[in-house]
Predict the structure.
Amino acid sequence: MRVVIAKPGLDGHDRGAKVIARALRDAGHEVIYTGLRRTPEEIVRIVADEDADVLGLSSLSGAHNHLFPKICKLLREAGLNDVIIFAGGIIPSDDREALHGEAIRAIFGPGTSTSEIISFLDAATARKVADQSIGVGENAEWYWV
Amino acid sequence: MRNGTGCEQVMPDDAAELFVAAKNGDRRALGRLLTLIEEGTVEAIGSITGELQNTLEGADSEKTTVVESNRGESDSAEMLVYGITGAPGVGKSCLVDRIASAWSEAGHSLSVLCVDPSSSISGGAILADRMRMSIGASESVHIRSIATRGASGGLSGRIQGLVEVLQACGRDRIIIETAGVGQTELGIATLADRIILVEGPDRGDMIQAEKAGINELCDLIVVNKSDLPSAEKAAHDLRAAIELGPNPADVLLVSSKSGDGFTELLLKLEDLPLRSEAAEARARLRFLAAVQSRVMRDERFDQLVIKLAANEISIHEALESIGYTSKNQPATKPPESKEPESQRLAERKD
């Protein structure tokens, strides 16, 4: 699959995102890394131009509450309803329910094994093939635990 | 989703709709259409827009305008494809960034195709060129990241298809950025109307390029990182090395970091002649790449490889199976001539 890994907000480093990117590559995916400090609008445009199947959002400095839902909204407005979204970084458990409500299908904290993320992507693919809701614009009930 | 996951194929009608939407500026439709071409769902070789045009004319001929996508005519027109190639680390992405910014500001509608290698082990890829480009932030510049997808990925055909669609959608300048190492990526460079080779200031980079023979293929050489002390000497050495050859390409010295030398580079790019000496070398490479691609896409190819490895057939027989006959031999071999390859070789040595 084509996966965009994006870092919205003002994070200064991206070691984690790069580790994830490499793991995804080793699992056979094509990974487009946007680099640091992209605005929500830029990220949505990249997803459209690259025709990405999956978008991984990474935030270490608290941007998630504001920027992640905004990105989800912009994606829906742009008609990109079938893109699968997952998130990673420093995201406190209290904040996670709201993000799942935005159809962010998985949230991975620090220390998550890369194999877990790969398993999530496999499960997400299976849902998609079976025509079950998995995209950002579809029913938000299902998420990875 | 991708075809490989067993989802139903997108019917040609959808491709036609995507094309119309893309021509009208829908970036998502363009992204989707480019994917269909990459996957071969929509036939990429030949006149893709012609094929879509036929579908469209059946659908709704009033909405569409006739598109001439004959690449042979594009030389004098403003639709040029620039191949920018060079060893990893010489600063191609920064260079492309500056050129693309300048062209975008000058009003061109631009597309940048960034080609990166796929892992031969996993088949995956990290496509990280666009992150180095600030122009990615600008809405007017379209960037698409492309993985080589292995030798049988049919890269040349895919890129050709992408270029044709992009031009049909009104992109008047296309840059293909590729690492230019290895046959696959060199082959891509030959799809461009003009090839620009980017060198770094270290001698090591140049030896790589010379080995690959790319300096014979290119129309312009740019030595990047002029802010570093060794760059000027490197440019000088390079000029000296190629000046004895026929019609040597110009060698320009720039710094993508500071912008030094870019005024001259941009002027040069506006009026860059095709080196006729390069034309034959490029045609040869392009033809060979196409032949290789054609052979590998033959459905009998994998089986023939297995038989060859097991010595069940000879190279001649394999070639004939897929239609390549030697002019000295009859078109079909008599069935009893199943001599093992080693015996045939022994006979030839006599």
About this structure: Chain A is about 45% helix and 20% strand.
